[in-house]
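HUMAN: You are asked to prepare a plain-text protein record giving the amino acid sequence and the backbone structure tokens, both parts labelled.

ASSISTANT:
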Amino acid sequence: MHAAMRVFDGLTLFLGILAVAYIYLTHQSRLNIEWAGGTALVLSTLLCLLIAGYLHFVNARISTLPEDYEDAEVSDGAGELGFFSPGSIWPFIVAAVVVTVGLGLAFTNWWIVAVGAVALVAAVCGLVFQYYWGPETH
């Protein structure tokens, strides 16, 4: 966790300095500020700041992880990581519906976006509740 925090702290600082320098230098040119690049750099800086803030927030609430020790072994991090459904079709369905909604947005076909949004809600419900109905009911 500490290594990831340092990476995103450094990346935030680097992108912030780069954004300021880019906006200043393009402002000095004869064409004035180049807004696309400046906006992209500012938004990248804010995204890295968001991730760094999240990592700092989580790090304050958890104990030290095995990967934070210099002499840690791979086996120190062994154990159960969670339950992942091995035979579920729902992640594929959710991805297919998201692609459908994205294509509807790209081609400005609002009826495809509307139908896809309804299908997305149904697919997410299927993904979340897959073990509450059918043969796998607990």
User: Anything to note?
Assistant: DSSP finds four helices and no strands in the chain.
